[in-house]
Design goal:
Elements (H helix, E strand, L loop, with lengths): L8 H20 L1 H8 L4 H28 L7
Helix pairs in contact: 1-3
C-alpha cells in the first residue's frame, strides 16, 4: 500500500479542464503560434519549451490522478 492519499475528484477535474483548455487554445490558434514559434530567435524557442512542459505536466498529472482514482498506482 502507498502512504499517499488519493487525489480528490475535484482536483482531477481541474487538471482535465486545464489540459483540455490548453489543447483547444493551441488547436484554434495554430497558424499564429506556428509563425511565432518558427521565427528564428531565442524567445520563441524558450516559449515553445515552456508550452511543451506545461502541456506534458497538466496532461500527465490528470492521467496520473485518474489512474490513481481507479486504483492503478505506480511505484515510479
Amino acid at each position: 500500500m502507498s502512504d499517499t492519499s488519493k487525489p480528490s475528484i475535484f482536483k482531477t477535474i481541474i487538471f482535465l479542464v486545464v489540459a483540455l483548455c490548453a489543447y483547444l487554445v493551441i488547436f484554434f490558434n495554430i497558424e499564429s503560434l506556428n509563425k511565432f514559434y518558427l521565427s528564428k530567435s531565442v524567445v520563441p524557442a524558450i516559449c515553445l519549451l515552456g508550452t511543451i512542459v506545461f502541456i506534458a505536466f497538466t496532461y500527465g498529472t490528470a492521467m496520473s490522478y485518474i489512474l490513481n482514482l481507479l486504483g492503478l498506482e505506480s511505484d515510479h
